[in-house]
Design a protein that fits this description.
Shape: globular
Structural class: mainly alpha
Oligomer: single chain
């Protein structure tokens, strides 16, 4: 996801302080920002979950624990 440099810097600082890894590091390394497990695009149950990965860098398991197991209702 393309963000302004200022927004990305804010998110990187926030995630580094709170989760021990910056959003940028997590995305480049394919690591969940929350649980630090390695992630592959095939790990996601649907396109919505994969899109969420590209936004938040949360693995499927962490997405499920935060949003619930079925986020298909968010389909727009």
């Amino acid at each position: 996801m393309k963000r302004s440099p200022e927004m990305q810097n804010f998110i990187d600082n926030f995630t580094k302080k709170n989760f021990g890894i910056s959003d940028t590091e997590a995305g480049k390394s394919g690591i969940c920002v929350f649980c630090h497990k390695k992630v592959k695009e095939g790990d996601f149950r649907n396109e919505i979950s994969l899109r969420e990965w590209h936004i938040s860098h949360l693995c499927q398991r962490c997405q499920d624990s935060i949003f619930g197991e079925d986020i298909n209702c968010l389909r727009g």
